[in-house]
Amino acid sequence: MSADTPLVKEPDAQAGPAATAGELIRFDRVTKRFGDHTVLDRLDFSVDAGKHVTLIGPSGSGKTTILRLLMTLAEPDEGTITVAGQQLFPAGEKQIREIRKNIGMVFQQFNLFPNMKVLRNITEAPVTVLGLSKDEAEQRARELLDLVGLSDHLDKYPGQLSGGQQQRVAIARALAMRPQVLLLDEVTSALDPELVAGVLDVLRDIARTTDITMLCVTHEMNFARDISDEVLMFDSGRVIEAGSPEKIFSTPEHTRTREFLSAVL
Amino acid sequence: MTWDWGAVRDFMPHFWDGLLVTLQALALGSLISFALGLVWALLMQTPGLPHARTNSRGWYPLVRWPVGIVTEFIRDTPLLVQLFFLFYVLPEWGLTFSALTTGVVAIGLHYSTYTMQVYRAGIEAVPTGQWEAATALSLPPTRTWTAVILPQAIRRVVPALGNYVIAILKDTPVLMAITVLDMLGEARLFSQQHFQFTEPLTVIGVAFVLISYPASLLLRALERRLVR
């Protein structure tokens, strides 16, 4: 990355969604198979800019795969995925990199870089990818660590933190890139129960105070109800029911949705 | 058989000469094997996410194939044979180096085919999640390697690399075969001139222990610090 990379890619970021009238992410007949197993089956759905969408459903129903496709960690077998009007597959390496910069992801297993201190985990990408100066990046990192309540820990290695703390650093790390879209992949599933609330509180905060688009795979139904504009219920690689959290959680129409909710609530 | 301290005293000046050569061969041979092994290991890698890597795409097979064949060949032939080859055959092609240089290169080359396996294991032991996090943060491939993957991989393999330092130390006497006067070379020369074998051979035996035992202690300490 060189000096021709803009510091923050605002113009680009605004051109995209405006051109597609609020729609930021679109899946068009997307199919993904692993061997004989069809994880996503001609999936269609779209997400408008600024919305918080939660994906629920039984394990193996393809929710995580959707996030991985968006993050270009996997490729679809068929169909098209567009982000801000730009097609993801097939796309040149350069175009993929541009789209990726607008998307941040938080993983179930945190995936912090264990060889870097907390501060550098957060500043690494803003410095090397966005071209921020070290000072700017550290300033940004300190603000974010403040937001996630970890200002005292910036000089520690990830291994010295609890799982909940690590996950909050991972959230800060993703936000430091100022992405338009934040993908949350079962971010509390690997945490001890008493650490879950702290992470969810941070995410509620972010959902309330930013206009970032969130795609969230979670089994925390109360959290989903709190932050979501829309809930998508998945089963066998398809969306079987979609709607506001009130509708999905209070008056689900589909039998599978009712079964699933009664099992997890 | 009697022990003659006089012979020990007479041998010591030669011993120091030999020790210096052995340590030079050890240090340079290790450095070459560490550096070259990393180069081999990286050339054998296909860039990109581990689960998205394919062996058959692009120009990578054109690099992997020759590197794989050459390193396999070197690993499967004896160091002594390689040493003779470099020492006696290269000059026929007009490439002449000192015996010690030839020896150091041979040792470094030979052991690089082992250290490459160590690096490979270290690289593969870095969890896939690290690659994915680097991708999610849009880190370019070079940066992913230098800032994320290699620091973690190398940290893991330091103890294994250290074991090769000790192995190299114990292989330095093969240099005697191409006229290099390492510790063993000096001991043999002294023995043949004075018909006293016990003292010089014992001295260098003790010297090998005095070098490798503290080295292995150091390694174990390093292992405790690095591998968490």
Instruction: Compute the number of helices of chain B.
Output: 8
Average predicted local confidence, pLDDT of chain A = 87
Sketch the major β-sheet of chain B. none
CATH topology assignment of chain A: Rossmann fold
How would you describe the shape of chain A?
Answer: globular
Q: Average pLDDT of chain B, to the nearest integer? A: 89
Helix content of chain A: 25-40%
CATH class of chain B: Mainly Alpha
Radius of gyration of chain A: 18 Å
First-residue to last-residue Cα separation of chain B: 52 Å
In CATH, the architecture of chain B is Orthogonal Bundle
Q: Detail the poorly predicted runs of chain B.
A: 51-57
Write down the CATH topology of chain B.
Answer: MetI-like fold
User: Into how many domains do the coordinates of chain B divide?
Assistant: 1
What proportion strand of chain B? under 5%
Beta-strand content estimate of chain A: 15-25%
Distance between the termini of chain A: 47 Å
At the fourth level of CATH, the homologous superfamily of chain A is P-loop containing nucleotide triphosphate hydrolases
SS elements, strand count of chain B: 0
Descriptive report:
The complex is a heterodimer of chains A (265) and B (228). With 265 residues, chain A is of the alpha/beta class. Chain A has a single domain (10-264), classed as P-loop containing nucleotide triphosphate hydrolases (Rossmann fold, 3-Layer(aba) Sandwich). Chain A is 40% helix and 24% strand. In chain A, the strands form two sheets. A six-stranded mixed β-sheet of chain A has the order 6-7-8-3-9-10, with helices on both faces. In chain A, strands 2-1-4-5 form a four-stranded antiparallel β-sheet. Chain B is mainly α. Chain B has one domain (22-181): MetI-like (MetI-like fold, Orthogonal Bundle). Chain B is 76% helix and 0% strand. Chain B contains eight helices and no strands. The longest helix of chain B is centred in the N-terminal third of the chain and has 39 residues, at 5-43. In chain B, 32% of the residues are buried. The interface between A and B is medium-sized, with 28 and 21 residues. Chain B: GO terms for molecular function: transmembrane transporter activity. Chain B: It is a multi-pass membrane protein. Chain B: Keywords: Amino-acid transport, Cell membrane, Membrane, Transmembrane, Transmembrane helix, Transport. Chain B: It is found in: Cell membrane. Chain B: The chain crosses the membrane at residues 20-44, 93-111, 161-181, 201-222.
